[in-house]
Amino acid sequence: MSNIVELLLNDFSPTQVIVDQADVAPFCRDYKGYNVGSAQAIIFPGSVEDVQRLVSICRAHSIKIIPQGGNTSTNGGAVPDNVGDSIIVNMSRMNRIVDLDLGNNSVTVEAGVVLGDLNRYLAERGRWFPVSFGSEDSCQIGGNVAMNSGGNNVLRYGMMRENVLGVEAVLGNGTVISNLRPLYKKCVGYDLGQLMIGSEGTLGIVTKAVLKLQYAATQTVTAWLACASLDDAVQILGTVRERLSVQLTAFEVISAFQRQVLAKFSEKLKDPIASPYEWAVLVEFRDASPCSQLTEEVEATLEAVLEQGLASDAIVAANLAQRELFWQHREAVLDANKAFGWTVGHDASVPVSRLPEFAAEVGRKLHAAYPDSHFIAAGHAGDGNIHLGVLFEKSAFGSTAEFRKAALEVNSIVFEIADSLGGHFASEHGIGVLHTEAFSRYIPEENVEAMVQIKTALDPDNVMNPGKIFGMPVPMPHGGNCPAGDGLESGARG
Description:
This protein is of the alpha+beta class. The chain has four domains: 88 residues, Uridine Diphospho-n-acetylenolpyruvylglucosamine Reductase, domain 2; 119 residues, Uridine Diphospho-n-acetylenolpyruvylglucosamine Reductase, domain 3 (2-Layer Sandwich); 109 residues, Alpha-Beta Plaits (2-Layer Sandwich), CATH 3.30.70; 97 residues, Alpha-Beta Plaits (2-Layer Sandwich), CATH 3.30.70. A seven-stranded antiparallel β-sheet has the order 15-12-14-13-17-18-16, with helices on both faces. Strands 5-6-10-8-9 form a five-stranded antiparallel β-sheet. A four-stranded mixed β-sheet has the order 1-2-4-3. β5 and β6 form a beta hairpin. α8 packs antiparallel against α10 and α13 packs antiparallel against α14. The longest helix is centred in the C-terminal third of the chain and has 21 residues. It is globular. Keywords: FAD, Flavoprotein. This is FAD/FMN-containing dehydrogenase.
């Protein structure tokens, strides 16, 4: 047993420490199993004081700290490297709802609160936290803050950053920063809480957050449309925005081959529209007004879309079960693709107006490089974050090494095209360890240098999640069948 483990066992309750490697191992593997590391122990703090004490101990002994929430990151952002000397700080036991202020439409929570649990709690009180994605029943608020999570409702409500009013965190230098006043307006110098959002645990550990709430919807209308092209889908988005911009919540697209993969994966995921077409649009509207005529307004808007020839068919979900079935098509993408074969997916964004060009150019270049591959897309077209990717048959590669080589080339193709169109290679999944090279390549050197200076000031000993974002000093081993690329998501992770 190492000295640091002995110190932790002496300083924390035995119920807060896991040292048996068989029990530690599951926490060292990321959501998809592609990034696998090892750690000396896992600590489950119960308070901000516990976190501060742990940081002090690790800093004094130069021990790497890996902050971890629900461990749903798809880019290896919440798992250790393979050296085995790290300590994982799992926040799941700091899961209290500290304060709910209905008059202020805000809630203060500890970092370990599960997103889905929070929304079930809020639903009973007529409120809703709008940052939503497929992993909401396992991801935690602290991880959502650290990743600046996005998801399906960014189009209307923005990313995590736009929905956080305050943050408490323990920095890498051991200092606790806290601004938990639930204020919508404040201008009191640098907003250190906002600095923590999207930092991926490299500056400190988020311990609490104040979140902005919305009123629960009195009506939700969900529709599925059939389109001939992505350009038509983007035009539909424009029409919908003109007519129902306030109520429009989500606007997703799914390509033809992706829908075939879904139908093969599960009988219940057959295409809602039987006749063949290229692009499906999944669009959702919410209204909290008790006097809303939302259904009638949506139906009138869809009629206009059909009259304009932008869609060949449209179905409005008749009930909750059909609405959930529509969304299952979107959320089952990751599992369906893994079952199909080798997958390389991406998290790139471009301006919405450039989406058709982006998809066409990526599809053309991928087909030229790999004519036997299958172009796929399923993502948040409403905010420009369409998850493009490529599927290979299981027989396409004789080894993981062969696939890695192809995956790197696919990444290069997609990243270069996104960059040329004014986009970025990462939108809601973060950098983690998988995209450190792309980070150094596509982010201006001056920007990186400024970030490094901030990192050095707040985490002078580089104990907080070292290797994430800026580069991994020790290569991380990969398992599974997708060692490169960050995979098509079933929702943003946190």
